[in-house]
């Protein structure tokens, strides 16, 4: 990124995704205090995320996923699928205009900070695939604008907070693969939400949908079903690209596609899904970057992901 970007103090949108940018994110990015959108996904950015990003208090959209970032996380935003460690900082609470906060598939740990409750504008909060522990904080009661909440595949415990049942905007809720206990009123959640997951058939989720396993009634074969989440921008294009790619390549290490489905659901909305053979040995990510518990079969099964 050129040094001169730091002088564009009136800049509101900075979009540089899917390029070949490399090296660290410059510290002077924090000078752009009018910045509302900053996206640099799918590059080769490396190093740590500068603390100066916490100065960008007007940000509503932020994306740095699919890079090579490391180190601890400052107060930001869409950082999925990197190698970030440590705790979520309390400075996150300063980003009161933040709409999306996605830090899934990293190695973040410890308790969820109460300061997240100050981000009252949040619509998407994705924390899945980390090592967070403890209960869902009671401060989340202020996040009434949440449309999607995914805290699956962590070490969270305690009861599921009852206030989640009253979130009328909530459409997408995943709590799978934690240590929650107690009883919750699923009827109240399902009445509002279109996608709710507690059960063991949920395998994982990504940028454009979620994956569950199932059994074909006739043959008894186990399958994995990837359902596209159409409200996410780019989901339809991702479906077409994946179909085209898998049509033209064959490899023994690729999961076989059994059928592609493009139809409408019972509400008349577009419905697209891919049905794969089920492979019960974890994800490519966990084989390339194994953790201490990757040898645990149950852990690898629940971390099974299909192509992104």
Topology at a glance:
Layout: E1 13-15, E2 22-23, E3 37-39, E4 44-47, E5 61-63, E6 68-72, E7 83-86, E8 100-102, E9 107-111, E10 124-126, E11 131-134, E12 148-150, E13 155-159, E14 172-174, E15 179-181, H1 186-192, E16 195-197, E17 202-206, E18 209-215, E19 222-228, H2 235-248, E20 257-264, E21 270-277, H3 284-288, H4 297-302
Parallel strand pairs: 1-3, 2-4, 3-5, 4-6, 6-7, 7-9, 8-10, 9-11, 10-12, 11-13, 12-14, 13-15, 14-16
Antiparallel strand pairs: 17-18, 18-19, 19-21, 20-21
Question: TL;DR?
Answer:
It contains 4 helices and 21 strands. With 308 residues, it is mainly beta. The chain has 2 domains: 3-198, Alpha-Beta Horseshoe (Leucine-rich repeat, LRR (right-handed beta-alpha superhelix)), CATH 3.80.10; 209-302, 2-Layer Sandwich (Phosphorylase Kinase, domain 1), CATH 3.30.200.20.
Describe this structure in words.
- The chain has helices spanning 186-192, 235-248, 284-288, 297-302, and strands at residues 13-15, 22-23, 37-39, 44-47, 61-63, 68-72, 83-86, 100-102, 107-111, 124-126, 131-134, 148-150, 155-159, 172-174, 179-181, 195-197, 202-206, 209-215, 222-228, 257-264, 270-277.
- The longest helix is centred in the C-terminal third of the chain and has 14 residues, at 235-248.
- It folds into two domains: 3-198, Leucine-rich repeat, LRR (right-handed beta-alpha superhelix); 209-302, Phosphorylase Kinase, domain 1 (2-Layer Sandwich), CATH 3.30.200.20.
- The chain is globular, with a radius of gyration of 20 Å.
- The protein has an eight-stranded parallel beta sheet, with no helix packed on it.
- By secondary structure, the protein is mostly beta strands.
- Belongs to the RLP family.
